Model the fold of this input.
Amino acid sequence: MTTGGACQAVALRSENILSSPDATYAQCASWSAAEAEGFIKLFGLSTETWSRVEALEGAAS
Done:
């Protein structure tokens, strides 16, 4: 059983790390709340579509 704790990375080194000098990460992003909401909706469309198709296929069988 654990009682809690903390861990803080102090260095990261890997030949396989996925990073790009042109990328913007959340910690330094400058998008607005409306832009973030739009992205979340757009990103979720595939899941929503899959869910609806599965529901229709389940109702048909």
User: Anything to note?
Assistant: The chain has a mean pLDDT of 81.
